[in-house]
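Think of the structure tokens as a kind of shorthand, similar to the way a musician reads notation: each symbol stands for something richer, in this case the local conformation of the backbone. In the example below we present two proteins back to back. Begin with the first one, reading the sequence and then the tokens, and try to describe in your own words what changes along the chain.
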Amino acid sequence: MTTTTTRRQALAVAFALALPCWSATALAASERHIEFIDAQIAANAGKTGVYVLDTGVEALLARAWLVENAKQSIEVQYFIWSSDNIGTLAAEALLRAAQRGVRVRVIVDDLLIDAPDKALLALARHPAIDIRIYNPKTSVGTPMQRRLQNVLTDFRGVNQRMHDKTLVVDGKVAITGGRNMADEYFDYNHAYNFRDRDALLLGSAVKAMQANFDTFWASPLSVEVETLYDGLGLMQKNVRVDDEQVQQVYRELHAYAKSSENFAPEVRAAIADTPSSFARLARQMRWTDVEFISDKPGKNDNRIALGGGGQTGTALARLVQAAKQRVVIQSPYLVASDEALALLADVRSRGVAVRISTNSLASTDNLPAFSGYRNQRARLLEMGLQIFEYQPAPAVQQQLVQRLTAATRAAPVFSLHAKTLVIDGKTVYIGTYNFDPRSQNLNTEVGVIIHDEGLAREVEASIETDMAPGNSWNAATDDPDQHATPAKRNQVRLYQWLPLKPLL
């Protein structure tokens, strides 16, 4: 095994927290910290505690600690769940929680889940684990001929995805934000990583998150895994696992997570310190008014057309409309619909400054989306928007990706993935909503609107750092496209000719 592979697995295994050597003292400390959390919630009735998870390592350890210490329930809702190290070890962590009696419910969107059929079915067979697939039209249990039929007969349905990303533990602690369940969202991919942002939440808003999960759980669009593999014809896969195959999947997951070669000394130290680190996070939380916003399953009532809007977009538009001084947006994709263009024109006409942090052609992971932005860029700049395009190797990367050292041979490409909005330095949204027509009209989205000036200014300062020279190029003066490869520039030109805007 290579050094880089060992390091990647060693760091990623932090998610599983598979350390059988935890001492009684550490476990007792965890119990004390859970009691501390309960006391904080009780002392701040009606309020929500918020801590911003700005780095991948912090976001990973927070999730790991929560799953490891769950007592009653875990609800998980994600757009992407990969079968890489993070995805595999996350599945193992949930399995261990179920085996100690925690009820685990999982909803994953169908489009980009890549779990092996039998492994997915084996996990769903556990009596304490229930897995549902949202809008299963292209992946789970669906053979190629059925996929083609769905695209031809239900184009909008195929494109309507669940982009929600939430983790709720015991109905009182939760995480939401931009990160999916894959290596690149936690800085552990050696080729390509995302600069992202989550919010760790305690208290009032968590109840709204859990209620939203229950709404999606009850929706006909969320289908039990077991029923997706029962097909006897050509239009549905027929997959079975017997009891021995189920247990074999469990043994393999546990063996991988417990393998000593996957643990580096620094990871052992980080995991051992997780209980005290979490208590530190809890003490640094801002207790304030927080509104959880979400879309209904299916997004809107359209069944054929690609428009229609949604509750999340409406709530965010109201925030922007209310701005008096400045709007700061951070979004990996910047494709303004006609409604968004009108909104931006209105706030600019009132003298409100609009500054946007987005990806450059050199850093983006989505060329079709960038083509939509490239078609609009000159117009947006003429409106007076200040746009800063993220560099693929920004100076801030060393600070955000804590495992990078001077000895690292080649830093991975760093791409923006955070979805954040700050209004007048007083109110901040952190969630899943991209500034594009897809988030506006097709994908269900979630997030939290946090009314706290101190926290809003901290997040705004973080985005300003991302927009600073050395981290981003000024779209108006720096000609950022010149830093992309000729192949990327040619590809995006081709996309610009296609009528893709409603799908971007």
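Once you have a description of the first chain, move to the second and do the same.
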Amino acid sequence: MKFEINRRQFLAASSTVLAAPAIATMVRPARAGTTLTLGHGAAPGNPRTVAAAKFAELVADKTAGRVTINVAGAETLGNDSAMLTSLRTGALDFTANSQGATSALVPELAALGLPFLFENTAKAMQVLDGPVGGEFVKRFEAVGVVPLDWWDNGIRHLTNSKRNVAAPTDVSGMKIRTPADPMTMDIFKALGAATEQIAFSELYVALQQGVVDGQENPLANIDSSKLYEVNKYISLTGHKWESTPFLMSQVAQARLGGDLEAVKAAAKEAGELQRKLSAEKDAEVLAAFRGNAAIEVTEVDRQAFAKATASVAETWKQKPFGDFVAQIESAAKG
């Protein structure tokens, strides 16, 4: 069963949490009737939205009803950055968040989006299921957050309202909306574009009004938010892969007690569904886009794009966590 919560209800509840003394880390059995909240920013019909509802259903089933998950999607509880702040204070219990916003907590996370690092989600998951994933768990726990799984935010592509983009030079001079993700900004700057950070909930209107010329997202997001209505040119750049980190607050972890393992298992199962739906949705959406006379889908010269953005990886290896960036790159190529 799925439970929905609105922003007013969330703020009223969270004010009580914030006023309470710090929670002890001692693990106790979850009390009957434990209610927790999951926030995310995806639109209805998006694989993330479907998987979040499935997570709530699985938790109820695996805990015999002892734990209830209220789901708040479509940025009901604020944007990704706001939800991460709430997560760290314990006002929010779970979030299926964006890689870009989450990299403000763990900057190394952005390295998963090195240009043309992963050709598909399966390869990325292979890396995250190994030592790289284990290292990320340690780095997240250091900032008060528990990674439960790595959901898929897809291979990302470029859309715009100006022209067909087939080569890197076609991007030069454009104004492109990116999330607040330093890796994505670096990629488009390397391509000669100006970048603008606009909340995803405001993106359709920004494109419609010409505030920016284009944007980049996985096909599922382009479809569910109907961005193709205001950006008719879709270029299959495949310039990067992104995760959707599925995160839990350490406060929630302490509250769950003996039900913690059941919740972790539910997160993994929901993640498998989300990745499956994401892959299916991409194939379905691409076919629909190709069959829509109002949309122009362009295959690009990916080798040329990879060459034009090669400097980004070298720049990131010079950062304080450059050794870890190199480890991620090596694991991806292995």
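Compare your description with these statements about the second chain. DSSP finds 14 helices and ten strands in the chain.
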